[in-house]
User: Fold these one by one.
Assistant:
Number 1:
Amino acid sequence: MYSGLLTLTALVVWGATGIHAVFLPPPGAHQPPEVSEVREEPYQAGGDLDDKELAGQIHEFVDIPLAGGHYNIHRDDDHNLKFFVFTVSGRREITYLEERRTVRIETRQNSLIQFLSSMHTSNSRRGPRVLAARMWGFYNEFSTWAFLFMTVSGVYLWIASRPGLRWAQILAGTSAAMFIVLWAVTR
Amino acid sequence: MTVFRLMRNIHLGLGLGFGLGALMFAVSSLAFIYGYLLPEDSAEESARTVLIPAERASSGRALALELMRDHGLKGDLRAVEESAGEIRFRIVRPGSNADIVYSADSGEARIQTRRLGFTQMLRQIHTVHGFWHDHLPSNVWAGLSVLGSIGLILLGLTGIYLWFGMHKERVVGGVLLGVGMVYAIAALALTRMS
């Protein structure tokens, strides 16, 4: 009971994330959110860098909060270097306008549920490196252990307190059998 | 039946109904977190070649269906690439994937199958979502996942009701609930505002 009370927020976030996941599109059909903000900053690239190195330096220069990795480095039709930076609050699209010596940062802010979906994967070793996100990561990891404990202790409490409940026996047996059959069929 | 007893039975029913599913999600989550500590999952690899006449392999999709119907492959069709005289694609399901290369000239489909280990399969089931799969069990896993998610929220709500009904536990429980919620919501809100 205590572990459930302490980790209730994580359980609700996981539940909401699981419900949201059913509405996610199949691979390749994902549409990023609309651009919600655009800003530009002057930047002079070094002359001896290839595109991958330049993308890495621009990634450091723009210093996007909550930034994860940067991906899909390529040139657009106007030969400008483009890539995007993943953040738990949505992706940031970076374009280096080489002739103007300017970096353009387009923000595609995601929805709250998409943010929670990203955050539900955080743990003490994974996720944004800002303090608040790390605090959540530790809480999320602790909640995972608590969830395992509640799963096992819940069954124990049933067996210890009301093992003779016929409907509970049937429900436990049927659901376990269905789970095992589904596993075997998938395997 | 009192409301307390009803809630207790709903709580028990949800827990037992999703017991193995909950265990699977808990263990797979830990496998995600501590994957770097686990020994590398052993995967079985095998290869075979089957003959398919060119007229039954008019496209990647037609060929994939043929292989699923008559040659024991099952899963979702992915990454279809068709070029002159050759079709390549992948058939995936939780715990297994097969890469297929078909040559129209020889009529041979080379199937390379990789059967993943237990923890890898657990992780893949954890991330199955949506009802758009060609592979029926994957849709069932996705359904189980969404039902389990609803069940998890209901378990939390009924749990709160059951705790609140235990008068002696209100103070300690209230402190734990408050501390947990303030800490977690503050961490999420501050992260979102970063």
Number 2:
Amino acid sequence: MTARMTGTDNSGLSLRFAGVSKSYGRAVALHPTDLEIEAGEFLTLLGPSGSGKTTLLNLIAGYLAPDAGRLLIGDRDVTNLPARQRNIGMVFQNYALFPHMTVAENVAYGLMVRRRPKTEINSRVAAALALVELGGYGDRAIQQLSGGQQQRVALARALVIEPDVLLMDEPLGALDRQLRRNVQLELRRLHEERRRTTLYVTHDQEEALILSDRVAVMRAGRIEQLGPVADLYNNPINSFVASFIGESNLLPARLIARHEASVQVEVAALRQTLTLPLPAVSSASQSADVPLLLLVRPEHLLLDESGPLTVRVEEVVYLGELTALRLRLESGADLWLRRLTDRKITRGMDLRVNWQAAHLRLLPQT
Amino acid sequence: MSQMAGLPTPWRWSATISANLVVAFLVLPILAVIPTSFNQASFISLPPTAWSWRWYVSFFADPEWRASLWVSLQVAALATVAAIALGLPAALGLQRAAPGLRPVLTGLFLAPMIVPVIVSAVSIYRTALDVGLNGTRIGMALSHAALALPFVIINIGVSLRNVDQRWLQAASGLGATPWTVFRTVTLPNILPGLVGGGVFAFVTSFDEVVIAVFMAGYGAKTLPVKIWESIRLEFTPVVAVAATFMILLAAVAFVLARAIEAGRKKAKNTKEDKMDLGVAA
């Protein structure tokens, strides 16, 4: 334990959930969940509020006890350990800084309770504050710091104890947009320097994309899909994941025929029957009689004179380098298309649209 | 005050006047005691015909008066310690009680405020007889602590509500034992409530007379009991002197509590002032 705490280039330990679950009375906060996070990995839990992200985090931190299952940090079973013995750093949503202590006293807290020598505490606190670019702020009162500065104090306080795992619960929720972006990049930099095992909770998909090695999309107390960001974006397993990560057009589809390496679907909105190669078909949509949706990302729709689809431009939304077009199909359905901005397209124009079959996905509606 | 600012002027005036009338009604009869204690005449009268310190001299010349003041101070101090020792855990426990149980328990703990004092006095007196605590300072202090307990619990309870549960979680996550969390996070943040509750407890005990009359005996005659006896036997202005001391002590206690609170705030502010300079520099 002491060796670990005085170490400087500790990248943290792996984290393993085995069948962990938690309920409050009849309300299930977390269904039995298996989850493995590698040492040094940055994993984000992404999901709407009430999806169980914070419950999962609190179970790891030890603020909640699971109803069932085991929780391992490295090869240590911590299921029954109190929070104080887990050596986990936590950054709370509203920082939870101690209001009666200075910045330095806040950061020193974890070392103080570990009874480290005073000189060591001072140098490590100074180093931690320098790491989050708050050198020289040690004597200030918490109330005098801006939200962004408080956020960094909270981070320094969590990091200074050299935690095996770093947990962050929507730590940027209270910051304005510009600041969020800066802190996101800062967190990215810190993680790349130290590669500390990090579990990050957010409901902001953009944040998840910027920060994470892998993302777990959660809903209603379950992990819907877990994987690298690009996987989740390109191969979502269902319409929930598809709509939670990135923009999407989801069109109702009906399965007509199933072949060796492809399926045939009828898409009423497009007035088309499409043949999709099997990799484009989410495994979940091959099984039961669930309603199916065809996923077309807005950037995968192309303006093409020879395209099969005639559309009318209903709305032009200028997004800077991109422009989003809302297109009305002949069937009356709407599609969003995104492309690099050029000013030639205006509302009311009739255009033709095309796509590549490889970019389409067939998903179960959930 | 700020709420009154929105009212039309005549209303504001009448509100101010009636508020002042209420204050006068409450405070003047109490303050009237003070001039009578300086009266030279050997009976209590208002206004005094001639001013003198003679009753203060006789107060301190009389060993019984001196002893009763000393007993009162001892009992009040002891009662304060006991009320805090019991009230602090009670307040902490109430906060953690199951939501369904909390109102019931709170009601129980606050009962001494609602039960008529004479009822408490009789039952405490009867019980104290069995354990031989009548006429002892400890017995008196414990009875007063029971009476003061609700004030301590309420005061600490209010300041506990300002203690964010996540501070405690953060502290334990950083490795602190429950006791360390309490000592380093909870306690500093409930200190104003603790001091306030302590002052209430002290004053409650210091001017309590009903239980004191039952419990005093010969060994624990407090100042209010002595005043009560004197009024029945002699009715000299020494009683007014004693009353003046009581008013003074209550006032000092509250001012002290306020000063401690203000001192804490000021300490915080100077820290902040320093910071403002730091930002500017």
